[in-house]
Amino acid sequence: MNYVAARFAFSCVVLIGTVGAQTAASAGKPESVVSPIVSTGPAKQITENQPSASISVDPASLLPDLPPVPNRPATLMGGTIRNLDRVRDQMTVSFFGGGHMTIEFDPRTRVYKGAAETSTASLRVGEQIHFDTILDGSAVFTRSIHLSSQSQGETEGVVLRYRADHNELTIRDAISSVPVKVRLTSSTRFNVGNRQASASDMVPGSLVALRFEAGPGASDVASEISVLARPGTPYIFTGNVATLDLSTGLLVLDSATDGKTYEIYLGNSLRPDGRLKAGANVTLTAIFEGERYVAQSLNLDSEPRN
Questions:
Q1: Residue (of 170, 162, 174, 176) closest to 218 by Cα position
Q2: 146: which residues sit within 8 A by CB, 6+ positions away?
Q3: Which of 93, 149, 143 is nearest to 116 (CA)?
Q4: Helix %, strand %, coil % of the chain (to 5)
Q5: DSSP three-state, residue 107
Q6: What's the Rg (C-alpha) of the chain?
Q7: Neighbouring C-beta atoms of residue 163, cutoff 10 Å
Q8: Sign of CA dihedral 229, 217, 86, 154
């Protein structure tokens, strides 16, 4: 055998022995990774029961974002807050010129008291406001509200109770379902018609107009109270018939005396003829019954206007 053949035979024997050794090792042990792992830093120990890091989530981030305020022309109005529903974010406003409307607000609404910006938490029943609204779909949305910097309010209602021991007057106004309570002080002014009166004239059932300074809770202080009508007292009205509903007996009168509008119900004894209609000039005597005026007599002063 020459040298080359001997070398070839020796290599085959070594190769066969190596393969056999690897096969025997694989048969006796689990398969292992052949390539070594080269570590470039300190080893990290991983445990299945290792607690995860605490995660802090802002609850506000879970709420959907409010859409932007629609870019539409706004209508500026003024009035007095008569009813406030913070659950539905709604309030009823009685306009200075008459009538009322329910409007909506939310965190997008900007609220101002004087020159300072505040929040909707400052809104109170009976407070005078100016606001601008836009039509957002079918809802009337309030874009901004300007509160009276003097925090004064006005309202009208029927006296429910006067407690002299607490210097407290409770009334029910025409719109709000919640009775309004005000405190009386030595500075409170009382009027019945053109004469001065006292707290004893605030008998239950009387229709009153009051001005007050708004305060927290039930601490509103009345600055002036005027008795507009007393139960059982007759009053004379003169003016034009604005509307007439014979099915309910309701006559709405535009008073020529003070320029106000009055709702007067026709008494059962009255039998109006065809001349009584919208536009007619009338003089009537009505008794205030604690909830409404009821006409006892009615005279037509002229033919209806065209």
A1: 170
A2: 112, 113, 129, 130, 131
A3: 149
A4: 10, 45, 45
A5: coil
A6: 42
A7: 11
A8: positive
Tens-place pLDDT, residues 121-143 = 888 887 878 888 877 666 677 88
Name residue, tokens 């009166």. 197
Cα(142)–Cα(247) distance, integer angstroms: 37
**Residue-averaged pLDDT of the chain:** 74
Q: Find how far residue 266's CA is from the centre of its chain.
A: 37
Name, in order, each residue with C-beta under 8 angstroms of 35's C-beta and a sequence gap of 6 or more.
none
pTM of the predicted model, to two decimals?
0.48
Q: What is the C-alpha separation between 199 and 190, in angstroms, rounded? A: 7
Burial 224-257 (b: 16+ CB within 10 A, else e): ebbbbbbbeeebebebbbeebeeeebebbbeeee
Domains plus CATH for the chain? 75-147 (2.40.50.320), 152-229 (2.40.50.320), 234-300 (2.40.50.320)
